[in-house]
Amino acid sequence: MKRKFFAFMTATMFFMLLLSSTVLAAYQRTADNTVPAYRNSSLTQRTGNERVDKGDVVIVLQETNRAYYVRYPVRNGTKDRWVPKNIFNTASQSQQINNGHNPEGCLDSVVSNANNQITISGWALDRDNVNEQIRVHVYIGGPAGSGEGHEIYANTYRPDVNRALAGVGEYHGFEATVNTNRTGSQSVYVYGINIGGGENKELSSSPKTVRINNPTNTHSTQITNRLQQVISEWKGKKWDNRESERIGSTCFGFANYVFRELHGVIAGSQLDWSKPYALKNPSSGVSCTYSGYINENAWHILLQECKPGDFLQTTNGSNARQHTMIFVSYNPNTRVVRVLDANFANPPDNIVRDRSKKLSDFAHRFQYVSRYTK
Ligand SMILES: [Ca+2]
Fold first, then answer.
1. Radius of gyration of the chain from Cα atoms?
2. Do 230 and 365 sit in the same domain of this protein?
3. pTM of this prediction?
4. Which of 26, 123, 163, 330 is most exposed, with the fewest beta carbons within 10 Å of its own?
5. 85 C-alpha vs ligand 1 centroid, how far in Å?
């Protein structure tokens, strides 16, 4: 499939190059016209008269002494025919238009400094009119048409662009912050919107990937710091099953201990034995945002929403083996998940571990989960 796709792309690109290199001129009709059309360059096989309306653009693809081979718009598309050259001779009938320049520019950076927001910067211009500040379209999560779309303008001060491109003007930069519903790791595609001849163009260095936080996956610094303290206090030590936390198994008791250290309450004191990847009665104020079967892809999404200190109650595929963990962090680029837990060993040893696991291994082991957060 890949090879076929590549062959198709190569053919398409070659065709496009061929087309663009053979455009000799383009004319825009200034009045409604009837164009005599022929099959051949000697203008002997007439196919009839074609109507070309005012404003229509006629492209010259080939040229002989007497004739042009032109592409002109018809209903539902275009037609290619030979026409006598002299029909373009009078200014009243047509006006030669510039074939145009595509917009150019660069996406310099995409960052997310606040929940549900990204800031995009770069520059873009169209040499068809350098006095104009062109529009720039930003798509979050996919290319034009599939991502979440935003429009900004390239109108900020960028003297370096003017120096580099000699005389295009100093106001073709853009730096804008947009609100977005997309969160987690997202690709951001940015396009310069064409003016005059030419077509819209993706800017160089686009797309860029950014991680966008949402309010549900950031905790106060206080909680994050306390989690780090708990990790350094317990990592590598044997969880002592202290009396006050002896609720269920060792991993369950330890996770509840950590949850209470962070949030002031345990996540819950009992499992729901009809589905042991869930708590029977979570503590007041503790919410469950996911509960059920989970595959690697769903883990990838869930872990990006998790906050440090969340309580993960899991089982394996047959619900026969329960395990409880405290979520620490997840890197969606390397797909490595970090958790804090006790007693995940064979044979059981009650040791507290700060573990980083490949998501594929993690997802293979834990096939049901409930996430509890406060
Ligand atoms: Ca243009």
1. 32
2. yes
3. 0.47
4. 163
5. 27
Pairing label, strands 208-212, 184-192:
antiparallel
Contact 314, 368 (CB under 8 A): yes
Residue 13: pLDDT band with limits 50, 70, 90 = very low
Distance of alpha carbon 168 from alpha carbon 174, whole angstroms = 15
Alpha helices in the chain (DSSP H): 2-21, 159-165, 221-234, 250-263, 296-305, 359-365
> Over the stretch 25-49, which tens digit does the pLDDT of each residue have?
777 777 777 778 899 988 988 888 8
Q: Which are the contacts of 102, defined by CB distance < 8 A and separation ≥ 6?
A: 126, 192, 194, 198, 199, 200, 201
Shared-domain flag, residues 9 and 71: yes
Going from the Cα of 99 to the center of ligand 1, the distance in angstroms, rounded, reads: 8
How far, in Å, from the CA of 44 to the mean position of ligand 1? 38
Gap from CA of 27 to ligand 1 centroid (Å): 16
The rounded Å distance from CA 200 to ligand 1 centre is: 8
Q: Indicate the DSSP class of residue 11.
A: H
